[in-house]
Amino acid sequence: MESNITIINRLQGVIANCLSDLFDPSERFALLDFPNHYNIGDSAIWLGELAYFDKKRTRPTYVTEIPTYDEDRMLGAISSGRIFLHGGGNFGDIWAGYRQFREGLLDKHKGRPIVQMPQTIHFKEQANVDSTARAIERHGQFTLLVRDQRSLEFAQRWFQCETRLCPDMAFCIGPVTRPTPQHELLLNLREDQEVGTAQDLTAATLRPGTVKSDWPDEPADFQRQTKHAAILKGLLTGRIGGRARMTELAYRERAQQRFDRGVALLSSARQVITDRMHGHIMCVLLGADHCVLDNSYGKTSSFIEAWGTCNSDKAELASTVDEALAILDARRVAAAAAA
According to CATH, what is the number of the domain 4-173? Predict the structure, then answer.
């Protein structure tokens, strides 16, 4: 068994070793595909990527989300520097738009080093696998980091590029202080197309002190509010700058506020059942007592198997909500007996 701190430190060390020859702090570079949406897990990854670069005392000189990508601005900002693509779970064809953007970037920048930060691979259509494989082969300088063994084996079979196994970048955030919980049990269960096996929530929801929530929706004025907050912080810290700098600060503020919203949610109860990979990862960062259910295609279980993130007395993979309840109940009884 490991403590959550030991797990975090171990995975940070793996990340540092994995990226050591892929990043030069003296070089200008781009970080593309800012996740400007409500999924808190993607914001956790972005903050982890920034934390990694911050530790190297540098920052990306060009950042963008896909809809606002500007080729000329990027080239003006990075010159001959390399391109990093934001990590996550969109390397495949489940989520529309990401594959096309990635392939287009590879075609436009043949020979320029491009690094895909840690991803999980999942394709439904062979034609899309073939399209991505052709773009990677034509490019010639693509490095693909993946988060689990199944993705690694898939990439080695289909893609002609260097592929490495690397943990999720959210671990670079490090340990997070957990606020005092107000409830007994949180059901952090996803409501999108990655939802896994249908679960009977009757026993869980009938328990006193149980709350249920996927990642919460954004406030109506979130984009404007975070832009203003970033400007104010930039003025107060002397970090105000041109358009590229202010975009980076605004993205950092949005990711941080989304992450903080997730911390508040996952800390709202003494115990957590989640089927979100970053519900699990953030619980590890928080040292929260939790159980994990898989998503629709094994993304979370494959990640846990690769990195031993349930190798503690505060995390365990369960097949059903009822099994998770039994595990959490046993932990609570054991903790009370030991007190």
Answer: 3.40.50
